[in-house]
Structure formats: C-alpha cells, structure tokens
User: What shape does this take?
Amino acid sequence: MYVTPRQQEILEFVREFTASHGYSPSLEEIQQRFSLGSPATVHKHLKNLEEKGLLRKQPHRSRSLELVDIMPDASAPAGSVALPLMGFVAAGEPIEAVEQQETFSVPEHMLGRARSYVLKVRGDSMIEDCIQDGDFVIVEERTTARNGEMVIACIGDGAGEVTLKRYYRDTTRGVVRLQPANAKYDPIIVREGEFKIQGVVIGVMRKY
Assistant: This one.
C-alpha cells in the first residue's frame, strides 16, 4: 500500500484537526486546507485511504473520519505487532512504489513513536549500512529528518518514485544530498521542493 504524498498530508491533517477540535474535519475543510478542486476530489482521496485500511468513516455522517490504529492480530507472534507492508523501496536508483495488501510482524520494541510501516528493499546502494537487497526496513512516518538519518524520499512530482538514502542538508548551497552507502553509487542532489520525506528508517529485519 503505497501512500501518496497528498494522502499522507490528508492523514496528518485529520490527525491534527481531530486532536485540536475533538472531532474530525469535514470534506469542505479538507478541500479548503489543500485547495482541492471539489469535494469529489476529497472523497476520492478518502476512499483510497479507506481501501488501504488507514482510515474509516461512517456512511452518510459528517465528521466521522477516524484513523485506524495499528493493532496486533492473531497471526502475529506474541510480543509483536502486524504492520502494513506498503510495497518496495529502492536502495539504488529510484523505482516506482508497488502497492501490496500484506502485513509484516515486527517486535513491539522496534516500533516508532509515530505511525510505522514496513517496506521491502530492492537494490544494494545501502550495503555498507548493512542493508541488503530483500531486507525489510521499519519506517516511522515523518516529513522531516535530521542530518545523517536514513530516510524514505519521494523524488520529483510525487508520482511514486521513492528511494532509501541518508539525508544531509547543505544550507550553504541550499540543497539536500541523499547519500548512498555503496561507493559505486553517486549521491542524489536535490533542492527543497524537489522531494518529500515520507519517513525515517528506525529498524531493519531480514528473512532467511
């Protein structure tokens, strides 16, 4: 389940609005917040989030939006939580994210403070950080990062090209360097506005 940058922004707005007001925003308030063309566009985003299991609402009722919390399920081992497996991330050149409808069991102590999810790694650009092709990274959903943190970055216009790299902000040049951990790859240099941080990697798991 790849979440687009706009869908992620809507989730964050619903979370913040509900915490501040005690009730969820209306379709019109979401439309105004993001300058969307019509309530129908908002409805389409919300429907996609419902289908991905990240949001639920009661039909024919206003202000009934509710974020879906991550809950342990019966198939997850004791002491673990089933997180959504939200597709692939490139440890190499950016690739298009692939939607999936699966979960991945993660030990509770590896969860982040914010909503977390799992991505499967494709490529070898992070092998010097002990992340190999086929590994699973646990991602804490965040839109900002500190220098040196490993991030999931969506590059370009938000159409779905994502990559896994170390984040370094160069304030003197006004650019961000997305640094691989493999000498055969060059860093990706982008300016503010040319990419978005989708999350920060907080753990790695491997299946044998």
